[in-house]
Every structure is written in structure tokens, then in C-alpha cells.
Amino acid sequence: MTVVATAPEGLYEDLDVFRARAIRWVEANLEPLGSADPSVGHATDDTDQVVRAKAIQRKLWDAGFAGLCYPVEYGGQGLPADYQNAFIEITRGYELPMLFNTPTFTIILPTILDFGTEEQKQRFIRAALRGEELWVQFLSEPSGGSDLAGALTRADRDGDVFLLNGSKIWSTYAWRSDYALCVCRTDWDVPKHRGLSVLIVKVHQPGITITQIKHVDGTEEFCQEFFDDVPIPVEDVLGQVNDGWNVASRLLLHERAAVSGSSPYAMRPRTTRHESDQIGALLLSGADDRQARQLIGEARVLTRVHSALVGRIGTSIRTSRLPAEAGSIPRLSNGMLRVRLATIAIEIAGTRAVAWQEGDPAGNLGVAYLGRQGVCLGGGTTEIARNIISERVLGMPREPADDRARPFREVRTNASVPRNRA
Amino acid sequence: MDLELTSDQELLRDTTRGFLTDSMPLSAVRGLAEAPSGFDREWWKKGADLGWTSLLVSEARGGGSISGDGLRDLALVAEEMGAMVSPGPLIPTNVVAQTLSVEGSGDQAERVLPSLLSGDAIAAWCIAEPGRPFDPTGVTLLAEPERDGFVLDGVKLPVEAGGEADWLLVTATGPDGLSQFLVPSSAPGVHVTELRGLDLVRRNAAIRFEGVRVAASDVVGELGGAAPSFERQLQTALVLQCAEIVGAAARVFEFTVQYAFDRSSFGRALASYQALKHRFADMLLWLESAQAITVDATNAVQAGAPDATEVARIAKAYVGERCPELIQDCVQLHGGIGVTWEHDLHLYLRRVVLHRQTYGDPTEHRDRVAMLAS
């Protein structure tokens, strides 16, 4: 599935007409963000965020602004990417249902478009665009996050269903999602990449237990799921049985596009603006301090360079100057940038980052610093990104591995290694 | 570097590349290291024939560019020059030519531009002063008004191509504010001293102005109106610097990657070691970032965009900081051969460090970026 960048003349509504129509509607129907975090909007709590996001997405659907780049036959508007870019510009500063952005619109639905049956596409793309269903990814496992193809969660055929058993982890907001794509093992007698399948799993059903994981900043957005004989109808396999690595690889490509800001399905590019604004606010109190100016200057330099990079790599992948795996370059950049911004923030904040008056935003900076490495871990670690860049973009030799050429049953995994070495 | 070139721009780039490869390989650059002048005038004139001196000058004044985007075209030339650590007064000559094109009187343009455009004459932009910030507040060279002109007193340092220049564009301060003067380097009272320098072929000089008399007609642009010109001149210089640095860094990265494939230790190619692969991944990230922000800055300055002031400085702050580090990493990955005179790495390192330190260093530009933010 590809989205054309610009419209051939006459085929679509004129871009300027679209723009004028969108501006009128957005001003009349969406709420200005004000000082709210763009990713949260005006939601009062986690549950409210789901309610608000689904309601706003429904408004977009009713007005014909949902899924601008999705095909018309599945409920989208079938428009080229520059209409989406125009809409991003128009909605800047307004509350959007960002909960749908990632993974639902930028990762899950594109993968369903690529591999889904006609029934699956009709059923799931339309429902998500209508604001009815949020998705989550069941990828990482407690036995290891980076080695996705080493999944131990199993789906065993039993008549008309697969029985799902095992555990997934680091899924974001699983408890407030409706459906999940789950990578699991359907054949243990072939090498690891050839025995996987991707299942469409209804999140809230008997046999699935969700626990929330408390993050160092006190939030509980990450979850772990346990599956006990969960029956998954065989028609809910996405793609072919045992071709799950192919599906999962495409999912990861869409994820990289989402992270790198080159996804045509994104409502808003991922931005570090909010963070640098926070730093900027702090600076205003210390603009006459040369040392603080060096730090704020560095923050602005790095942020602006990152956005230039995102554009360049996106263009390079579209024009095949670089392979799709080059999406790992902005991923790595994003991790390095935000790590540095978090450090700059506490450097400027001084003691206020560790001991603050009630209500002082500087306290958030100290807390954010605690979870700083999260941006280098989630969505594939920066170490994996460096492997991909050096191997797939620069063509350097792959890391040696002992699990490629033998049945997965015989591979050493964290499930088979004793916990106590004694 | 730029991903959206027209066929005319590709032609300009390829012509420049071919000319540099044939006429000025790195062995020839090394050969010029001991020469009294860092470049050959006849060679520079051939470059001028390819457009190196005329792209920022209006057609009415004898210049012009095929694409109509002169700075974007010139950045392509600069990138190729960086890749070949090419000699030649690219930045000062173009800054002065652009200034005369935009602000010069008809008489000044007629007197000086034809020879600058043909490469027969060289111009130097005399702006930096020793120990002073690289901005209008740093200018202390005095232009004292007298009956029908001015007397210049002060020191400019470093002045790129100052030792070779036939014409000097001097920024000075006086009762009317900051002004620019066009001065022949042969004028009485102009004392030029060549400086020793890091780059083998791009030379700098110290120029002392001692009671140098200039006429009122030697003022370039408005009397007291040089601050806005400084901003345009700086943006041009920064774009060309970044393009040269990126051209150099891209070439060094390219041959270092190749080296990692070719060179073995412990029976394996260097490129197979994860510790090194990860460093190459970081370097590719920096290189792509440097290229991306250089293109953005070039386009912003070309278009006269409102954020050109900021983006040009952001580009220099990033590229000027990151690319010398990138090349140092490439030295490390080469091992001992990387710190020898024999290997070409140091030619590139010399060039990017020269650029890093001149026309405002990363620290100065970060400071300015922060002030623009608040």
C-alpha cells in the first residue's frame, strides 16, 4: 500500500479548497490546546482520555476528515499525503485524538491494509476510523524485548481456533485498548522466523489478564498480559499462518515510519516541541546567564536538526536513495536527542529538579530525567537501531546468531535457562 | 547533499567535480602547501569560467545562475570543494561580489565586479577582529570622517585570502555607525601580514589599517547601514562553510566505511565488529543530520525566509561541532595511519577545523540561537 505524495491535477478536491474547508471546520469544532500537552489534550484522567479521543475521532469521521490517506473503500478519504500534511498544519494548536495516532493509525491499520483479508479490512479499518476501536501491539515478551522473532507465546491449533498461551509485556495502555495484534509461535519444529503467526486478539475477554506496570515516573501506561487458553478464531490470523515474521517485519517498518515522522497516516508528527518549550520557559528566568544560553542554544539546535533529519530520511526512503530500514536513523536520533534534552533540562533547572515547590514545573523535569532512557528502549532499543543501520543501510556483516538454522524447539531461550545457575 | 536538484544543477555539480578531480587532486593540493600562495590564479580563473564567482551576482551586473537560485548552486560547488579540500578564495570572493552586486554603486560595480567575476582579481571580506565577537558589536576598526572622506585605523584578523586579495571590503565603525568601505589592497597604510595556519591551502592574513584614506565614494551601500549587510554576508558565509564541511565529512565517511570492509584484524573485517558497527551507525546519523540542516539552511537563506537568521546559525553550530568530531572518529577507526602526514585524513580535518573556528564558532552561534529564542 503506497500513498502518493501529490495529487495529479483534477482527480481530487483542489488542495486550497480542501484547506479552506478544513480551516472552517477545525475552528468551529475542535478545541484549542492552549498550554495542554498535545499528546494528552484536555483529558482529566486516563479513562477520560479514551472517551474524549473516541468522541473527537467520531467528529472527524462525521465531517469527512478521518483517515485522509486511507482508501475510500475502507472508510478513508483516499487523498494524497500533501492533504494530510495540510491538515496537520491546520490542526496545529488544536486538540486531536492522539490516542489513535500510534499505534492504531500509523502502525496497525497500515499493516492490516498490507496483509488483511477483504473482510478484515472492511471490519477493522472502518471501525477504527469511526473512533470505535483502539489498538495495541502485543510484541515484546518477558523473556526478551529485542529478539521479537524469538517469541515464546504459543498459539496451538484446536479445531476452529488457536489456543493462545503465554505472556506479552510493554504494551502501551493495553487495558484501554479494544484489539491487539499479537506475534506468537505456531510451529516449533522450524527455524524461528518460519514458525510465527500474527493474530488479531480481542483484548477484553476471558483468559486474558492485564496487569499494569508502574513506571519510574509513577505512571502506569505499560502493561503485561497473561494468556490462558484464549480461543482465537482461525479467521483472525493476519496474513498466512507461519508467515508472521513477514507481517511483523512490515509492522516494524510502519512503526519506524511512525517514529521517524514519515508516516502519511500520522495526525501529527511526533514532536519534541513540548519538551523544548518547557526548557525555554525555564530559560526565560536565566537568559542573562551565558552557561544557560549555551544549553538552551544546544537544545534548539538539536531539536531543529532532528526535524530536518526526519524530513530528509523520509524523502530518501520515498525516493529509494536509502532502503526502508533507514527509518532506524531518525529512531536513533530521537532517542539521542531526547536523552540529551532531559539532561539539559535538569542542568538548567538546578536544585529545582530535585526539590521543588508544589506546582513548580521544574519538578517534572527531574522526574522525566529518571525515565530518560525509556526513549532509547521502547519501540526497539537504540542498540538494535544501530545494528539495523550498520547492517541494512551500510551493508556491514550481520551479527552471528545461533538460532537461525535449527528448529526453534532446540534453541536456547530464556524459558529453558534455569533461573539459578547453581 | 541536496536531494532535489534540477538537471542544470546536476550539470554544474558534475562539471565542478570533474574539473576538481582532473585539475586539483589531493596530490596537487599537497603540492600547494609549500607554495607562497595557496592557489594558482590561472586555475582560479578556470573555476570562475565554471561559475564559481558569478552565482551570487545579478544578471544586470554581469552574474547570474541557470537555476535562479544562486546560493543553492554555489552550495553545490562548495560541497564539491569540501570533498576535494580544494584551494581558492570561494567564501570571501563570493561574499564581496554579492555585496557589490546588491549594494555597490554603479561605479564600484563597474570598477571591481568584472575582474572578480572573471577570476582576474581576488577580494577579501575584512570583518573579524582579534579577540572580538564575530558580530557587529565586535567591530572596533575606526572610520574617522575627514573633509571629503574617511581615515581607517585598526586591525582585521583573520582575513581569509587577505594575503592574495586585490580588493578589501572593510567593515568599520564611526560616528554614523557601522559602514563598509571598498579599499584596494595597494592603498597606502594597508599592511598585510600572512598568518601561519592549519589549512594547507586556505590562508589567512592580519591586515593593519594605518591612517588609510578613503573617499566618500568608497562607502559601499548606506553610510552607517552595514549591520543588515553583515547579516546577509554572514548567512552566505555560513551556508558555504557548512556545505564545504559536509562535503568533506561525506567523503571521509565514505572512505572510512570502505576501509572497515577492506581491513582485517583477528581474521575478520573491521566492519564485522559490533563495537565498530555501532560507531558507524552514529556517524551516519550525524552525517545525514549535518546534510539535512545544511540543505534547510541553504534553502532558508536562498528564499530569504523569516527564520533564515536562526537556521543558518543552527546549521553552523551543529555542523561545525559535529563534523570535526565525526572525522576524528574516522581517524580513530583508521588506527595509527590516521595520524600520519601520509594519509589524507588530516587534509580534511584541517579544513573542517578551519571552518569550525572562523565566521563565528559553534559556541558563539549557540549563544545567538538562544538569544533569538528568548
Would you write up a description of this structure?
The complex is a heterodimer of chains A (422) and B (374). With 422 residues, chain A is an alpha+beta fold. Chain A contains 12 helices and 8 strands. In chain A, the strands form 2 sheets. Chain A has a 4-stranded mixed beta sheet. In chain A, strands 2-3-7-6 form a 4-stranded antiparallel beta sheet, with no helix packed on it. The longest helix of chain A is centred in the last third of the chain and has 29 residues, at 290-318. Chain B is globular. In chain B, helix 1 runs parallel beside helix 4, helix 7 (226-262) packs antiparallel against helix 8 (274-303) and helix 9 runs antiparallel to helix 10 (345-357). Chain B is built from 11 helices and 10 strands. Chain B is 51% helix and 16% strand. In chain B, the strands form 3 sheets. Chain B has a 4-stranded mixed beta sheet with strand order 1-4-5-8, with helices on one face. The longest helix of chain B is centred in the middle third of the chain and has 37 residues, at 226-262. The chains are: A alpha+beta (422), B alpha+beta (374). The interface between A and B is large, with 42 and 37 residues.
Offer a quick outline of the entry:
Chain A is about 40% helix and about 15% strand. Chain A is an alpha+beta fold and about 425 residues long. In chain A, strands 1-4-5-8 form a 4-stranded mixed β-sheet. In chain A, strands 2-3-7-6 form a 4-stranded antiparallel β-sheet, with no helix packed on it.
Key traits:
A: 422 residues; alpha+beta; four-stranded mixed sheet; 12 helices; disordered C terminus; B: 374 residues; four-stranded antiparallel sheet; 51% helix
